[in-house]
Design goal:
The structure is a homodimer. Helices cover about 40% and strands about 15% of the residues of chain A. With about 240 residues, chain A is an alpha/beta fold. Strand 1 of chain A pairs antiparallel with strand 1 of chain B, so a sheet runs across the interface. Chains A, B: InterPro entries: DnaA_dom, Hda, Hda_lid, P-loop_NTPase.
């Protein structure tokens, strides 16, 4: 096997234009959102640690923070660590020159000492800067992730920590019905609960599907019934 | 919020030059490996479905297939669907013009009808081509992932399916000791088991750490003992 330079590909990562703070359903997370808005605007805490269950909306919030920073002319970078196996830890080098760094799912690199060390080094470099904010997300508090490096855990604990409170099914249903109403669509409770039961339960998926159903119902001049939904989504 | 075009970033994804078929520990997966080699060389099955537990080496094999295709001058594309929330399903459009498409973790888009439909459409386009192979990975067989679209599941079942057999801890220990030996390092069973217990248990992480320990032990002229390892890795 040749020892030439590793092959570099480039993945077009897309910050969806509808994942903003405006489109986020706060439900008990107001303080966290305010804190992230400040970080994105260059006035927040240097380090923010955000944790919550899968599908609780962490990625939406990190996307929203990057979008706000970009809107204000600040350079932001979003990195999902779920794909660390296809990246080199060197990707973290020099990020501290940006205004905002959002690292999603940092628990994915726990028990991997080389990545943990690279994260630790990034933390230290961020703390030495005046104008860089770092926001990280994980599925558990820093003490509960299982990181190997005690120094990394202590750094992670220095920042401000927030738990993301997930939306209840009733709140998701209300959010769906409200979004439908804005579009002039009638979404009955029965149909809303059908969607919640069948589809992935994150609001991103539910809203994307609602958008598609909206267009299909307009084209077909049909109401949103369960048979119409099954037909449209090929279920 | 402006409705301008979504922000596009670009993630430098890196196919590690040491994740090849040569460096993969076959352990019961010989037939699968041979099948992937053929697919990467343009002579294999049109569709390969590869499933196994997390950390069983799926990503290594997909990297290896892309590396082999590239080495032979074929265009290959590797896409980890764990970050689908930061990508548009439109990323799948036109991929069928490549020689090899490797989609990692397709279970991540299950119960998301728009992504499932995009996958289904890609399958159909690949089947219409003469020179494109598609390799997908997931954590369970196609029937057990929970996909919504029956047509997608039936397409996934058309291809050849392989289960990836994970390495036992003893096999991982043997692989570590063999890799150490090649480098002129002595790795005792006790020290090897210490690494297996403390670190992430995938061979990728274990080998990367062994490389680092190799360099540190040469610099320090020290043997690989547990105290030396703790010191080197800051554990």
């Amino acid at each position: 096997m040749s020892k030439s330079a590793p092959i570099q590909l480039s993945l077009p990562v897309h910050l969806p234009d509808d994942e903003t703070f405006q489109s986020y359903h706060p439900a008990g997370n107001q303080q966290l959102i305010e804190s992230l808005r400040l970080a994105a605007s260059g006035q927040g805490e240097r380090i923010t640690y955000l944790w919550g269950n899968a599908k609780s909306g962490r990625t939406h919030l990190l996307h929203a923070a990057c979008a706000l920073a970009n809107e204000q002319g600040r350079q932001a970078f979003y990195l999902p660590l779920g794909i660390h196996a296809s990246m080199s830890p060197a990707i973290l080098e020099g990020l501290e020159s940006l205004s905002l760094i959002c690292l999603d799912d940092i628990d994915e690199v726990s028990r991997h000492p080389i990545w943990e060390e690279a994260l630790f080094d990034l933390y230290n470099r961020v703390l030495e800067q005046d104008n860089c904010c770092l926001v990280v997300s994980a599925r558990a508090p820093a003490n509960g992730v299982g990181f190997l490096l005690p120094d990394l855990v202590s750094r992670l604990n220095w920042g401000i920590q927030y738990q993301l409170h997930p939306l209840s099914d009733d709140a998701k249903l209300a959010a769906l019905q409200q979004r439908a109403k804005v579009r002039g669509l009638e979404l009955s409770e029965e149909v809303g609960r059908f969607l919640l039961t069948r589809l992935a339960r994150d609001l991103r998926t539910l809203f994307e599907v609602l958008d598609r159903l909206d267009k299909a119902s307009m084209r077909a001049q049909r109401k949103l019934t369960i048979p119409f939904i099954k037909q449209t989504l090929h279920l």
